[in-house]
Amino acid sequence: MSNTENLILGFIITFLATVLFTYFVRKILLDANITDSPIVTEHKHKTGTPTMGGLAILLGAALAASIYCNQKNLLLTVLIMLSSGVVGLLDDLLGLKIKEVQKVACNISSEPILIGRLTLKPGEEARVATEKAKKDFPNLLENGKVEITGETPIKSEVKERDKIIAQIVLGIFLVATASVSTSVLGFEAGIFIIPIIIFGVIGSINSVNLIDGMDGLAAGILTIASASCAIFSIINGNYNVALPFTILTAVALGFLVFNRYPASIIMGDTGAFALGAGYITAGFLGDLIYFAVIALAIPIISVVISLMHRAHIIKLPVEPLHHTLHYKGLSEKKIVAIYWSTTLLICFLAILIYQFMF
After folding, report:
1. Residues 54-87: pLDDT tens digits?
2. DSSP conformation letters of 216-278
3. Does pTM top 0.85 for this prediction?
4. What's the confidence (pLDDT) of residue 219?
5. CB crowding 168-196: b at 16 or more within 10 Å, else e
């Protein structure tokens, strides 16, 4: 069997297996009533959709690793995925506990009002979420400028500090394999490859996790980015590098069958952590990190914009960016289509430029 045929067979088996795993995981989660409670007002219709669907992604990747047990890069990629998935699973389990219930306020006045960092136009609604918004709310309510139109349960979650610590540990796992080249873009990094790996793992996990806020958004982008990395590797004759990305493409696309709009299952942190860590691991092990980062440009840009918002450099009405676009009137389907097509265009141009320039 040729290398290309082997990749195609691996893709088909993993894709079909992930579709089946997702179907059964979804059924089990529904039976156990492990479902989502969206905090974004516009997503209230998704309440009751099973979450932690990333378990199916982990099962699909584990099956592929079992079939290709002699492929070191794939085994290490799946091992990091499983480790990261467990960390994400713990966060998802904690999220089943309600921390607080936030009020939803509607502007019933005839002029825009300021509540927290948001400016609500007449008739617009928003959660009373930040400390400033909670201080502003009583006066606005007393003056008859807002009314309570609902309540939103806020899930408990792992503290950001603890998440970063866990992600650092995951990065150390990858460092401990001693399988990552110390050369980056032709430069010898030496011992400095350690912080580069750790920063890469943290960045990739958070990029995918942040972008996982609309039906099929994260799974679709990871499908396109992973497939592009696989194609790039095949063009350059690196079939061993292409295999992990082929498997990542298969599990992301297999999950997307049920996660596309309107989603009947959500990957949760279980899936986002696994895909983010697995993607960057495949990039590091295949010495393809430069192209992998370019292919993941849209999630990375989203993280940068969110960090600028939190640092008060820019102001978003809602965070992250895709929720701001929704808030401004774009439909979820249009936003996902824009993100997918932009990722596809970036990947296509990156491959094209590389072929002509190098």
Report:
1. 999 999 999 999 999 999 999 999 999 999 999 9
2. THHHHHHHHHHHHHHHHHHHTT-HHHHHHHHHHHHHHHHHHHHHSSSPS---HHHHHHHHHHH
3. yes
4. 97
5. eebbebbbebeebeeebeeeebeeebbeb
